[in-house]
Amino acid sequence: MSRGFFISSTGFMAIGPLAGEKGDIICILPAWNVPLIIRKMDDCYFLFGECFVWGLMNGEGTNRGLGLGYEVFRLR
Predict the structure, then answer these.
(1) 57 vs 64, which has greater pLDDT?
(2) Alpha-carbon distance 10 to 55, whole Å?
(3) Mean of per-residue pLDDT scores for the chain
(4) 54 is in which domain, residue-wise?
(5) Does 69 reside within a domain?
(6) How many domains in the chain?
(7) If phi over 0 gives left and psi between -120 and 50 gives alpha, with beta otherwise, what is residue 56?
(8) Is residue 13 predicted with pLDDT exceeding 90?
(9) Rounded Cα gap, residues 66 and 60, in angstroms
(10) What three-state secondary structure class fits 31?
């Protein structure tokens, strides 16, 4: 899978799937080592792949108290 560099809307530098688009979501799952890129389409979310995000790897996103919030996603 081809990857490219991007900066999230909250300022995190990342490398992720080239299929990514503005508005995609960086999703951090508990007990998962790397963030995922998901996209809302109609009434569900689609998983596009893993990404490397400086400052959010190895659980840092859930452990740092960033106040990013929690949301339940249904992936297909």
Answers:
(1) 57
(2) 12
(3) 81
(4) 3-62
(5) no
(6) 1
(7) alpha
(8) yes
(9) 9
(10) coil
